[in-house]
Amino acid sequence: MRTISEQSAGRASGALSWYLPITKFTRVLGGIIVVALLHNPIQALSANISPGQSVTLAWNQSTDPTVAGYNLYYGEASGALTNEISAGAATNATVPGLIPGTTYYFAATTYSFTGVESAFSSEVTFTVPTPPPGMQISVTPTGQSVLSVTGTVGLTYDIQATQDLETWTVVGVVTVGAGGSADFTDTNATSFSRRFYRTQQQP
Fold first, then answer.
1. How far apart are alpha carbons 103 and 55 in whole angstroms?
2. Does residue 12 register a pLDDT over 60?
3. What is the pTM of this model?
4. For the domain 41-127, what is the CATH code?
């Protein structure tokens, strides 16, 4: 009985000795997967202009089977990406409401099914194009010209006028307000038989 008991104890001890290395191996393997996830972020990130002052970012799909989805981060300074968009399993995301003339910085991350998030990918930058100014002219009953200038909010434009399309004179200045337009009235328009106008952004 003692011999059988000793053999059983020996088997139990052997099973335990196998269990401990397997447990350690599993923990090490889990650590390797997490490290791989943290150090294997999005490999390519590109930006494309979309209508309406927005930009669409796209990236390569991760081949890591532990990746559940992607997050996109952006901001107006490198390393200060304070805005986040969750893209889920998609490999692209559109960022709306961007300010014309502003440069934005973008980076993406992956996250696992357990919520572990990778480090940022390399940043890409995108400067939102500034739309060219537009102008509409209407004439009051008294013959004055009213110019409605549209352009980028906050920018200042010179109003220039000419009679011969060769010599241009600044006749006024407007700054585009929050509504995206500004009006200027040429009170001297009645002094000329004809007059042409144009706008020029101030430096």
1. 12
2. no
3. 0.54
4. 2.60.40.10
Dihedral sign for Cα 113, 114, 120, 122, please: negative
Distance CA 158, CA 186 (A): 13
Which amino acid, residue 106?
F
9 strand-pairing partners: none
Distance, in Å, from the CA atom of 152 to the CA atom of 180, rounded to the nearest integer, reads 6
Cα–Cα–Cα angle for 85, 87, 92, rounded to 5 degrees: 105
Structure tokens at 50: 């979309």
What gap in Å lies between CA 14 and CA 198, rounded to an integer?
A: 91
- State the amino acid at position 78 in one-letter form: S
Closest CA to 123 of 86, 63, 84, 74: 74
Q: Is 7 exposed, middle or buried (0-12, 13-18, 19+ CB in 10 A)?
A: exposed
Residue 2 identity: R
Q: Are 111 and 64 in contact (CB under 8 A)?
A: no
The pLDDT tens digits of the residues spanning 94-134 come to 998 888 778 999 999 999 999 899 989 889 998 888 777 88
How far apart are alpha carbons 118 and 67 in whole angstroms?
Answer: 10
